[in-house]
Known about the structure:
Blueprint: H1 3-11, E1 16-20, E2 23-31, E3 36-40, E4 45-54, E5 57-62, E6 65-67, E7 74-77, E8 81-86, E9 89-91, E10 98-100, E11 105-110, E12 113-119, E13 121-123, H2 130-133, E14 139-142, E15 145-151, E16 155-156, E17 162-165
Parallel strand pairs: 1-3, 2-4, 3-5, 4-6, 4-7, 5-8, 6-9, 7-10, 8-11, 9-12, 10-13, 11-14, 12-15, 13-16, 14-17
Amino acid sequence: TSASALTSAVGSTSAAVIRVSGTISCSGMLRVRSNKTIIGNAGATIAGCGFNINGDRNVIIRNLNFRGWDDDAINVQESATNIWIDHNSFTDGYDGAVDIKRGSDFITVSWNRTFGHDKTMLLGHSDDNAGQDVGHLRVTYHHNWFDGSNQRHPRVRFGNPVHVYNNLY
């Protein structure tokens, strides 16, 4: 129920199921370590910050409302694997809602809604990052709702295979 409790829970090296209640106001990016399930209770909101999954694995982020983040809402990078981003909403943030890059692999992005936002979902850091990304970035995007969002529905570089199906634009 607080930014300090959330920061401590997601940053712990122990496996955990983390329940989020109410609105948590924070800034920057909170490091999410391996073996975490982060589930929002009804109406749970992360306001002003985002989650950074950096080289970690086995993470589930589900049923959260992200708004007004100042970097990315969810950033998956540096060979992070086995990530599931499901049933979240994203609105009015600074950069990407869900960015997956730098050799990350085996990720599912499902049943999310992005609305009133510019850059939604990026897959692959840049056109110059083939060395790290080729052979990785195996991602599935399904049943997401891109509602009044402008770009990256998703934007895909190097991922093979990437499954994009049953999304609403």
